[in-house]
UniProtKB/TrEMBL annotation:
It comes from Haplochromis burtoni. GO terms for molecular function: carbohydrate binding. This is C-type lectin domain-containing protein. Residues 62-174 form the C-type lectin domain. Pfam families: Lectin_C. Keywords: Disulfide bond, Lectin, Membrane, Transmembrane, Transmembrane helix. It comes from the Eukaryota. The chain crosses the membrane at residues 12-33.
Length: 179
């Protein structure tokens, strides 16, 4: 019976040891999962503010619109057509936040601005007159030979330039989300 007692004791110690081991593994797993969840949430949060990209066609959400920078270069008119085909229009800049947003791409881009009809009378592609402008110093300077607007001097808030409409450039389309 002394032998049986010792065996029971040994078995109890082993069981206790295993129990401790399982508890430890369980604890580590829970801590790991919690930390992983926190990490995933922080990643999602940090990627959200401005550049929430759509899976299809790389549209970028900002304020109440979606924007898409082209991957190829075209003339201003062909750029305008491309945006129309996508149910959008060349970017129209109405607010200072939008102006700062477009500069962030650090790219020379056609926007929806033209004075083709009457020189010096700048209009947006939706027919509205340009009221607030962000011309770079000395611009617009092209007279009858530069009738299309582009974002060019993007390191400055006043980044606009007038350029000949036939030049091939990247462009930016804008699609309004709310009517
Ligand atoms: Ca002009
Ligand atoms: Ca110019």
């Amino acid at each position: 019976s002394e032998f049986i007692k010792k065996s029971y004791c040994r078995a109890a110690v082993i069981l206790l040891g295993l129990l401790c081991l399982f508890l430890l593994i369980g604890f580590i797993t829970v801590v790991f999962l919690c930390e992983y969840k926190k990490y995933v949430i922080s990643m999602l949060k940090s990627s959200q503010p401005k550049l929430l990209t759509d899976c299809q066609g790389n549209w970028v959400a900002f304020s109440d619109s979606l924007y898409q920078v082209s991957l190829e270069k075209k003339s201003w008119e062909e750029s305008r057509q491309d945006c129309l085909q996508k149910g959008a229009h060349l970017m129209i800049i109405n607010r200072r936040e939008e102006q700062n947003f477009v500069n962030q791409f650090k790219k020379s881009l056609w926007i929806g601005l033209t004075d083709s009809e009457t020189d010096g009378r700048w209009k947006w592609v939706d027919g509205t007159r340009m009221t607030t402008s962000y011309w770079n110093s000395g611009e617009p300077n092209g007279g009858r030979s530069e009738n299309c607007g582009e974002v060019r001097f993007y390191d400055s808030e006043n980044s606009w330039n007038d350029a000949p409409c036939s030049i091939e450039k990247f462009w930016i389309c804008e699609k309004r989300v709310s009517p």
